[in-house]
Specification:
single chain; about 375 residues; alpha+beta; 13 helices; about 55% helix; rod-shaped
């Protein structure tokens, strides 16, 4: 019986044991809570570190893209589409700043019409509107004049779409093609020079009429050079003075033909020295290059702002002068133009010499015929 009761009686837990168990439970809860906090802190720190790395990477990428944006030898410009279809500058790189003559701060937020001259802004707007209407990239060549300098660019416009599928911005890039244009112009000038020389040479071969040859020459020069006037003078038959042989002019006002119109007519002795020392006399801007002296007085007398003249030489003897004059504006003569004029002068010198020889032969032949007729008449 004692054993039976003994097996069903549990020992009572002391107050100290209960207190100890409660403390241990609180400690476990506290440790669990601290672990959760530490886990959260670690997760937060990890997230912050990841975000920091992402931000650093994005910052490096942005710096890289900015260095490319500002350092690339291409024009980059961003145009935003604003209300009512307006187009205004959002950003541009340093190359674009040089093109338009404004810095980034001056250009930002301004419409195209406030950046470019009216006619140029109208043409540029048409390009952008065409790109927006097509909804795809377009490329074209464009000539831009800034500060008196003309440059050529291959432009590409690319539209950007927002999440709704609407174009909100156009990014443009421009590659300078001045070298290519210069090569094209050089080839064009060479072709034009060959055409001119062939035309004059053909006239020379087909005709021994001086009037026809000189008229063809001056009219062709006037067409090719697009100057105010072309003047051709040669020695008179007795070589006592230089006479005006032919004048071609685009001016509406008539010229006083009795007054000197070329260097050799205005100052024969001095002009011969000039032409002997300089194969080509090229004056781009009279007021900038000449301030006094005989040459300045001559250009003032002839009412010309720019002048290009060369002698007509044959066998080292001066036969005359070809003089191109620009009276209404400054004209910058290119080396290719100077070379073209000397080539024409050389061809014309040969032609005039051939014509002179032909005329001498004709005169001698006519004289012999007259002499023979006279002898026959005397024999009768």
């Amino acid at each position: 019986m004692d054993n039976h009761w003994t097996s069903h009686i549990k020992p009572r837990q002391s107050q100290a044991d209960s207190h100890l168990n409660g403390s241990m439970s609180q400690m476990e809860n506290k440790l669990t809570s601290e672990k959760q906090v530490n886990d959260e802190l670690w997760a937060c720190q990890t997230e912050l570190e990841i975000q920091r790395q992402i931000d650093q990477k994005l910052r490096h990428q942005e710096e890289f893209l900015r260095s490319v944006y500002e350092g690339v030898e291409q024009a980059i410009f961003v145009i935003d589409i604003v209300e009512n279809g307006g187009l205004q500058c959002s950003d541009l790189n340093p190359i674009s700043e040089k093109i338009i003559g404004l810095n980034r701060e001056q250009a930002r937020g301004k419409p195209l019409e406030a950046i470019f001259p009216q006619d140029q802004a109208h043409l540029i707007r048409q390009r952008y509107e065409h790109c927006i209407a097509l909804g795809t990239s377009i490329s074209y060549e464009e000539s831009i004049t800034q500060g008196g300098y003309q440059s050529y660019w291959l432009m590409t416009l690319t539209p950007l779409f927002n999440p709704e599928g609407r174009i909100y911005r156009v990014v443009g890039t421009g590659v300078n093609i001045d070298d290519r244009k210069q090569l094209e112009n050089t080839l064009k000038e060479q072709a034009e020079r060959e055409r001119l020389l062939n035309s004059i040479t053909q006239t020379i071969r087909q005709s021994l009429d001086r009037e026809e040859v000189v008229e063809k020459t001056v009219n062709t020069l006037l067409e090719v050079f697009q100057v105010s006037r072309v003047i051709l003078v040669v020695y008179s038959e007795d070589r006592s003075y230089f006479e005006l042989v032919k004048l071609a002019s685009q001016e509406e006002t008539s010229l006083e033909l009795e007054k000197p119109l070329s260097l050799l007519q205005y100052h024969p002795y001095q002009a011969q020295q000039w032409l002997n020392e300089h194969p080509v006399i090229a004056i781009d801007d009279r007021e900038m290059e000449l301030t006094s002296g005989s040459l300045y007085q001559a250009t003032c007398h002839m009412n010309t702002q720019s002048l290009l003249a060369t002698g007509i030489w044959y066998d080292n003897h001066l036969q005359g002068e070809i003089c191109l004059q620009q009276s209404d504006k400054v004209r910058y003569w290119r080396q290719s133009e100077q070379k073209l004029l000397t080539d024409v002068s050389n061809q014309l010198a040969i032609a005039l010499q051939q014509i002179q020889l032909y005329q001498q032969l004709q005169t001698e032949l006519n004289h012999r015929i007259e002499l023979q007729q006279q002898l026959q008449h005397d024999a009768i």
